Amino acid sequence: MKNRILFAFFAFFVLLQVQAQAIFRPGVKGGVNFSHFTQTDNSNEKFSAKQDFYVGIFGALRATKVYTLQPELTYTRQGAKREYIDGFDGLKKNETLDVSYLSLAVANKFVFNKVNFQLGTTFDVKINDAKKYIGDSNYRDNSFSSIDLGFFAGIGFDITKNFGIEGRVKKGIIPVSDWDDSYTNVVFQVGAAYTFDLK
User: Fold this and answer.
1) 95 backbone dihedrals φ, ψ, rounded to 5°
2) Which domains are seen in the chain, by residue range?
3) What is the pLDDT along the chain (199 residues), one digit of tens a residue?
């Protein structure tokens, strides 16, 4: 019983310390996406990276000297370039696939001086039907999955107290297409973030 009371006091003390040290700072972020789909076993098609952008907001909660919890809400344009052999005429063709998501992420940032390492999860909701570009033509494709779950890892560097740069790799785990479960999202992100001071 005595040990339980001591543990309760210790836990309460730690909680007070964390709350006393916690600092909340909102911010904005944006950058470039290099996205593609994982390769399939189909030798008649190959995916490569397409370039687009992401932009969003976040709230950084600095809980301790080395740990920050950072929820994020981001608009991200992803997709891939696809080279394939047409099953009708046997010709090699190319298309670009554009898919836009609203992404809710939770980043765990481990801070060491100006450098931080990031690990987290994402829940992405497709905003509208994917768009396919083939030559001069384009059309909507509603066969793409409406959600995606993913994990990411990254590294950041604080140039100033408020401004920093970062790079991430995000890997989806839900198949991109409803009719083909053999490929998923992969995104390399390079961008910058600006954090505001509330005081």
Assistant:
1) -145, 155
2) 23-195 (2.40.160.20)
3) 555 554 554 444 444 444 446 889 999 999 999 999 997 777 778 889 999 999 999 999 999 999 999 999 999 999 999 888 877 777 888 889 999 999 999 999 999 999 999 999 999 999 988 888 877 677 788 888 999 999 999 999 999 999 999 999 999 999 988 766 678 999 999 999 999 988 7
Contacts of residue 25, defined as CB under 8 A and 6 or more positions apart, other chains included, come to: 59, 60, 62, 195, 196, 197, 198
Instruction: Give the residue among 57, 51, 50 at the shortest CA–CA distance from 74.
Output: 57
Amino acid type, 188: F
- How far apart are alpha carbons 154 and 190 in whole angstroms? 10
SS3 track for 59-93: EEEECCCCEEEEEEEEEEEEEEEEEEECCCCCCEE
Contact between 193 and 166 under an 8 Å Cβ cutoff? The reply is yes
How much is the pTM?
A: 0.83
Burial of 91 (0-12, 13-18, 19+ CB in 10 A): exposed
Q: Which letter does DSSP use for residue 8 in this model? A: H
Residue 14: what residue type? V
